């Protein structure tokens, strides 16, 4: 099975009293392979974040179906769903506590081997080993010795400890310099050999090595392809 399938998904947010509807997704169909990097690009307001929230079943679809590993998310116990879908929380600016605490607060029973492996996957093995107190180094507000890009990859390592089937990343590389962006892309490539990765990006250039790019505009899929195809059509 593909990791994720959307079949003709319709969705709108309800708000106000009497309830008004903001139609956001107008019949979206797409599929995300079980391995590899799938990018979702498109302008602000296109509905990209909403796709993620439907995968996580924060909201229910108004029409169509969302499948995870071939199973309708409606029928999955929430606990199962939460285990399968890893959302990379990008709170890299506001990290408190030690490296270890940041990695394991959602997975307090993670083994040392798993922690090491997650750090390696995120390209942080040597970085953390080089910190004054290794895993026990305080991240604090600033000055911990981790760059913005490294902190972002720490967020990925944290999600890896969950061993998700699908990893969701929002606005992945928007604030990174080109070196950090390259490191980040390397990490995504490695991670996407183990699970499906779906990354939201503002620009196609940040996801040039995606196996699949879905262009979403006004709640509709405008194009699907690899980077080269989409650039030719532009
Ligand atoms: P994107 O991630 O592509 O920027 P979103 O999925 O965040 O797009 O938003 C799509 C549309 O839905 C936008 O018009 C946005 O204003 C609206 N929207 C997002 N979240 C909510 C919400 N919780 N309530 C009402 N409208 C929302
Ligand atoms: P902003 O939209 O102002 O950047 P945040 O930085 O708090 O707000 O969150 C960024 C986006 O990520 C928001 O649209 C929010 O709805 C979304 N988001 C937060 N947590 C999750 C999650 N677990 N899964 C999917 N989307 C999430």
Which cofactors or ions or other ligands sit in this model?
A: adenosine-5'-diphosphate
**Overall average pLDDT:** 90
Hey, roughly how much beta strand do the residues contain? Answer: 25-35%
The total of helices stands at 8
Low-confidence runs: none
Describe this structure in words.
With 234 residues, the chain is an alpha/beta fold. The protein is built from eight helices and ten strands. The protein has helices at residues 48-55, 78-84, 99-104, 112-121, 125-129, 148-160, 178-191, 227-233; strands spanning 4-15, 20-32, 36-41, 63-68, 71-72, 85-87, 166-169, 196-201, 212-217, 220-225. The chain has a six-stranded mixed β-sheet with strand order 6-7-8-3-9-10, sandwiched between helices. Strands 2-1-4-5 form a four-stranded antiparallel β-sheet. Helix 4 (112-121) crosses helix 6. The radius of gyration is 18 Å and the shape is globular. One adenosine-5'-diphosphate binds next to helix 1.
How is the topology of this model organized?
Blueprint: E1 4-15, E2 20-32, E3 36-41, H1 48-55, E4 63-68, E5 71-72, H2 78-84, E6 85-87, H3 99-104, H4 112-121, H5 125-129, H6 148-160, E7 166-169, H7 178-191, E8 196-201, E9 212-217, E10 220-225, H8 227-233
Parallel strand pairs: 3-8, 3-9, 6-7, 7-8
Antiparallel strand pairs: 1-2, 1-4, 4-5, 9-10
Helix pairs in contact: 4-6, 6-7
The chain binds adenosine-5'-diphosphate (2 copies).
């Amino acid at each position: 099975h593909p990791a994720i399938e959307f079949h003709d998904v319709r969705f709108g947010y309800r708000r106000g009293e009497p309830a008004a509807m903001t139609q956001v997704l107008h019949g979206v169909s797409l599929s995300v392979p079980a391995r590899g990097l799938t990018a979702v690009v498109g302008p602000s307001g296109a509905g990209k974040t909403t796709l993620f929230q439907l995968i996580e079943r924060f909201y229910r679809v108004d029409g169509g179906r969302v499948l995870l590993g071939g199973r309708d998310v409606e029928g999955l116990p929430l606990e199962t769903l939460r285990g399968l879908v890893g959302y990379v929380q990008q709170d890299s600016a506001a990290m408190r506590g030690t490296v270890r605490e940041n990695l394991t607060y959602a997975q307090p029973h993670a083994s040392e081997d798993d922690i090491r492996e997650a750090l390696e996957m995120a390209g942080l093995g040597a970085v953390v080993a080089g910190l004054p107190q290794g895993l026990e180094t305080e991240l604090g507000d600033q000055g911990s010795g981790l760059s913005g890009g490294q902190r972002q990859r720490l967020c990925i390592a944290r999600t890896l400890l969950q061993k998700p089937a699908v990893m969701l990343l929002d606005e992945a590389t928007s604030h990174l310099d080109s070196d950090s962006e390259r490191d980040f892309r390397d990490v995504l490539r490695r991670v996407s050999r183990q699970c499906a990765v779906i990354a939201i990006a503002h620009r196609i250039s940040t996801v040039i090595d995606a196996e699949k790019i879905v262009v979403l505009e006004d709640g509709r899929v405008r194009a699907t392809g690899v980077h080269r195809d989409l650039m030719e059509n532009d």
